[in-house]
Amino acid sequence: MTASAAPILFVSDLRVSYGRIEAVRGVTLAVNKGEFIGVIGSNGAGKTSMLRAIAGVLRPAGGSVSFEGADTTGAKSHQMVARGLAMVPEGRMVFADQTVRDNLVLGAYSRISSDPKGVEEDIEKTLDLFPRLKERIAQQAGTLSGGEQQMLAIARGLLSRPRLLVIDELSLGLAPKILDMLFPVLTDLNRQGLSILLVEQMASYALAVTHRTYVMENGRVLFDGASADLAGDDRVLDAYLGRRGKH
Length: 247
Known about the structure:
Elements (H helix, E strand, L loop, with lengths): L6 E12 L2 E12 L3 E5 L6 H9 L6 E6 L2 E2 L5 H7 L1 E4 L11 H8 L8 H14 L1 H5 L10 H13 L5 E5 L7 H16 L3 E5 L3 H7 L2 E6 L2 E7 H4 L3 H7 L7
Parallel strand pairs: 3-8, 3-9, 6-7, 7-8
Antiparallel strand pairs: 1-2, 1-4, 4-5, 9-10
Helix pairs in contact: 3-6
């Protein structure tokens, strides 16, 4: 889908602190409607802290967050979900003692009372996306494999009917064959109109599926650009894609 000029998310000079430690230092980025945006960087770059501030899990120490033209700086996570932003957290964070179906219903908590029929329809749609979940619909989430839990975390996020899906470290702890199943699903969702912001340590995967990518280090954005261009950029090749050239 071609992105429009109007940003669905705009982050300006965002700062996140843990006491005296500044984890995010003036990050500015934008996600246009219909875009699939990546954020790559090493461990400790500030990627997760940035996402948590955007999604309302953490309160920023400075800067601003705007979602669909409204200032959402400091909004709570449940408020962001109601506005149309859903986050798939690092480490999946499924409700381990609840069934697959219960996890999906919990993902729709903001609309279950007002649109129960729509929720049931959306559950069926997400199960079509992830047939393995359909097979395990009555199984406790904690007994699923890591890949199945990641499928459930994505499906749970979709149940709120987001306009922007924010995903933190999709590949964490997963085998390549599972990632080869998950990334095409995200690509298809984006083609259907869902805007996506993906934080990903495995740069090769992120660069292969996203439109644009931001490269973070030490809490800052070092540079950004079209993902296809960055895939051949010497700075990215040396730092994130394993090339060992002369410096």
